[in-house]
## 1
Amino acid sequence: MSKYLIGITGASGVIYAWTLLKAFKNTGIETEVIVTDPAKKVWEQELGFEWTEVKRFVSKIYLEHEIDAPPASGTSNYSGMIVIPCSMATLSAIATGASRTLLQRSADVMLKEKKPLILVIRETPLSLIHIKNMEMCALAGATIFPAMPAFYLKPRSLQELVEGFVGRILNFLGVKHSLSKSWEQEYEKYQSTSYSED
Ligand SMILES: Cc1cc2nc3c(=O)[nH]c(=O)nc-3n(C[C@H](O)[C@H](O)[C@H](O)COP(=O)(O)O)c2cc1C
């Protein structure tokens, strides 16, 4: 049975993490979560409720200073890790192998153990430093998965937009879900619809 590790950092877009954790719970796949201190602040600012609510969906919660926790070791049995959203600060720490916090160390472990590591980065515009850090992480085996939701599936709400994006992550991992339709499913509808300006 697979178990995923989810890292939540202080980048904007913690709603993606909340939606992903809920989706994993609905599929019956176990998740454990690591939350950074900045993530707690951004969470309360953006979502307006306590970050500790994640306890409804995850089997374990770790804080970033818990450097001796199981995810810090390559002997732990995770199918992969998703850092969502991933700040430029954490991206930089992963790119250099800094491993100073549990989240950074866990990402380092995923890379050295050749396990899937998805980095849902969020920043704009990007400096050359950000781009080079992404390049380094990609070369080391991570998947850079920018928080760039698609509009062609015509989301009718913010939640649908987020679910469409989170659905892409689950598709990438090969996890079956009912969050969003595929372009294949929407294509016929699209062909038979004519759009006017109003
Ligand atoms: C409201 C808010 C939004 C932020 N959004 C971003 C962001 O989108 N991307 C980013 O790289 N940093 C963002 N930051 C800055 C990070 O929180 C900051 O760099 C922090 O040190 C990241 O630490 P962490 O990666 O350990 O969570 C934001 C900060 C705040 C307070």
## 2
Amino acid sequence: MKILTVNDILGLIKIVGIESFFSRLISALNQDFSRWPSFYKSARHATHYAHGVIELMPCSDDSLYAFKYVNGHPGNTAEGKLSVIAIGQLSEVASGYPLMICEMTLLTAFRTAAVGVLAASYLARPESEVLAVIGTGAQSEFQVLGFNSVFPLRQIRFFDLDAGAMRKFARNLSAYPLELVQCRSIKEAVREADIIVTGTAAKKRQSLFALEDIAPGTHIQAMGGDCPGKTELGHVLLSAAKLIVEYTPQALVEGEVQQCDASHIHAELWELVSGHKPGRENAQEITVFDAVGFALEDFSALRLAYELACEHHLGTEMPLIPDLDDPKDLFGLLSA
Ligand SMILES: NC(=O)c1ccc[n+]([C@@H]2O[C@H](COP(=O)([O-])OP(=O)(O)OC[C@H]3O[C@@H](n4cnc5c(N)ncnc54)[C@H](O)[C@@H]3O)[C@@H](O)[C@H]2O)c1
């Protein structure tokens, strides 16, 4: 069984390149969302605490089984820890044997951006060139580079309550040919945007901006609100928007749509990908991808990481499962 560490994933990204990794991941997500009925799906198992959440996210088809362990602790950064860390496992269904255990903190950031870009390819105006980012924490640069790989981005407008997080964001993106505009308020950031990414971490109901603060035709990638009582957009804006979710049973508990009801949902993402329902229908619509993170996305990220790790001989084989001559003689290991 392979172990893929953070360094292995960094090595993989170095070999493949960030842009090409995004394009392969978006394509893996596209393939998997377009065969939605072939997956065994469930809402994730979430254990909530006053200060955060710990979640297990399983998803499987008839050949591979994947699950991710992930947390969400908005107060962690004040203690020098990440808000979101993750580890995943991929197993073969035929025997139930694990194929790989893999770091998923980086992979989660990549897949969250990639699935947002997949959704935006049906929902945002293709000529979108101004992206606003609200919340410039750990996920933010991944979001920008993901969107930049598909949309002709020219300008990034950004705002965070933490000036240090904005300096870090600007430093990390300074090498890219993008005009970076640090804003003094959320309103200033969003008013000229074609696409808005909300990626704030706060365990409360927020309304980061109002309907009248944004231009007609804006697409919102709402990815920061992902727990009961943790939202980023207000009810009026949601009611005026075309709302797309990943998986309705989970979205109704964790998404922005927890403030409304199922009748506000236009479609699940797979319905856009497989052509069952239309995405954007005119240039004036406000569209919202109410992303909370669904286990199928981690399935796609893990299967891609496994394929690439095998192709490039990355990772370490580790004896985490007993290797026996007689599979009924487990006890014999103790006397060997
Ligand atoms: N949908 C998904 O699949 C998915 C995946 C990963 C993370 N997330 C969520 O995305 C959010 C961001 O994750 P992260 O890893 O970047 O967290 P982070 O803690 O690194 O960054 C969050 C940033 O938001 C800022 N912020 C908080 N409230 C704000 C406000 N009102 N206005 C402006 N900025 C504000 C903070 O100062 C911080 O810099 C978290 O809530 C996390 O749970 C969702």
